Input
Amino acid sequence: MAKDIEKYPMAPSDYRNFLRQVDLEEISLDCCSVKTNRNNLGNNLKVEVQHKANYTIEEDNSAVITSSYDLTATMAKKKDFAIKVTCAFRVILSSEQPLTDDFMKIYNEINVDKNTWPYYREFVQNMIIRAGFPPLTLPLIKR
Output
């Protein structure tokens, strides 16, 4: 655990204190895509989800984050997918104090997915059912 603390540019207590005065202004859908290949459906599909987030500090006290998810469900190779669901959310933060790169790097790694993951889970569930597939429930984030 000590190694994890060393990789962050702020002490955990400083990060928590700064986070208390940050507000989540908006989470909105930026773009999405659902692709299906019914020929590759089968039992025991392997589901893999990738997440990445990028941020821009717009003004000293505002930041825009793009939180993107890519889900691929396959039997074997990724190119032989049965289902692909991609989605990007736009997250806007505001702060009483100027936002810094140090804070935003930690927020992107630790917090942004906790804010956007429930939206993505619901989007995937909804789109999978609309495509005529059995429900797919994605797990909780546990860390």
